[in-house]
Amino acid sequence: MLKEDRFFDPDPTQKSIAIDLYNKVKDLPIISPHGHVDPALFSDPERGFGNPVELLLQPDHYVIRMLYSQGLSFDHILSQEDPRKIWQTFADHFYLYRGTPSGMWLTHEMQMVFDVKERLTGKNALNVYDQIQSALLSADFLPRNLFKKFNIEVLATTDSASDDLKHHQAIKSSGWDGKIIPTFRPEDVVNLLAVDWHSNIERLEVVTGADIGDFASFIHALEKQRTFFKSLGATATDISMVSPKIELLSSNERDSIFQRALAGETTKEDADKFMATMLYELARMSSEDGLVMQIHAGIIRNHNPFVYEHYGADKGFDIPVQVEFTRSLQPILADFGNHPNFRLILFTLDESTYTRELAPLAGAYPSVKLGPPWWFNDSWNGMRRYFDQVIETAGLYNTSGFNDDTRAFLSIPARHDVWRRASANWLAGQYVRGLIEIDEAEQMIVDLAVGLVKKAYRL
After folding, report:
1. Of 351, 354, 334, 353, nearest in space to 342 by CA
2. CATH number of 49-141
């Protein structure tokens, strides 16, 4: 079960200071500026959650990838037939998550959200299942009520460029005061090899009223959709790719690639060039409309073809690769890096770039901020490494605080709690080493919890 002094270094002096700093921010509101929670959860005030398996297990690629890595079948894990049987299997194997972020998040959810008083095991599996299921039937566990209980000040979702944002519109028109805003993600139409790319273009035509027959009309439709997103509160965009390389193509080259895509003749080379030129266009748009541009680079999606073909995307087989930023981003930083309206937040899974490239870039360009440790690095040790590798060069105030980047709504408080504990522990270490004063640490812990993220995302 959770210990009150978890994550803090054992040195008594440092631990005491870390606990004092943590207590100053543990109850501050949660700012969640980037994530993948479904806005449909909040558009209907009476909508609840499903069973514990549908809620905590099956949507979470961290959880199911661990089970699959130990030889368990996705046919069983993802089955819709007997959730109690699946939960029993999960509990029988809960030991697999010892020492992992998933294990800590899940334990936090069960203890702090569902008041489970004992560690999950095969023996108590069904009792815990029934306790969680009973809670989910209560009005206290409706998503809107949990939103308030979790003290979430703002929650940003991630929405495709072709989305009609009907759930965001329903939330806004309902009069509910919870702040849930969209984030513009154009990957489904910018990646020419995306599944259903043609259908996505058709949906973009419908939601914008545009006739997209060439590159110019495509750009116009994206700009119009960004304005629509802003009208519903969006402050940021997001895009993910393997490499953030920028390539400036001529108008004829861009349109030729787009025409081949419309004709169903896209090549891998075309897709790579189109993404590279669209990154420049998206940066240009952000410099004009002020939407913060987020780039998540360095990931190969759906690495296991068998799993992808049989079970679909997002099953835990997105694997990190090395990334180069300094040369790749130079074209957009040359043109927009000094622009007062442009903001670029960079994320990577390649930690070797923190000290070598990202911290120096953020420490120089006024437009660039560093995103927090992301995905596999969103962990206690990932956060420790981040502070050690980034702050000396970039400075704290060229980072962007924390975002949970999660699909799992109930894990949001757990993830932010780890960040606040890690931040307090790092600051306490800085103090005992004589690098900062205690009043500075007290201000910095507030900035790490809420201040930096509000400023970076213009919230």
Report:
1. 334
2. 1.10.2020.10
Measured distance CA(420)–CA(391) in Å, rounded: 16
* Domain at 12-43+155-456: CATH code: 3.20.20.140
Q: Which residue pairs from 131-138 have beta carbons closer than 8 angstroms and sit at least 24 positions apart in sequence?
A: 132/52, 132/56, 133/51, 133/52, 136/48, 136/49, 136/50, 136/51, 136/52, 136/55, 137/48
DSSP 8-class letter at 160: E
Question: What residues does 240 pair with on adjacent strands?
Answer: 296
For residue 159, the 8-state DSSP code is: E
Q: What is the pLDDT of residues 341-356, one digit of tens each?
A: 999 999 999 999 999 9
H/E stretch holding 453: helix 452-456
Q: Which residue has the tokens 């679909």?
A: 312
| Cβ atoms of residues 404 and 101 within 8 Å | no
Q: Where are the domains of the chain?
A: 12-43+155-456, 49-141
Amino acid at 14: Q
The C-alpha angle with vertex 117 and arms to 422 and 49, in degrees rounded to 5, equals: 85
Give the tens place of pLDDT for each residue, 387-439: 999 999 999 999 999 999 999 999 999 999 999 999 999 999 999 999 999 99
Q: Letter for the amino acid at 27?
A: D
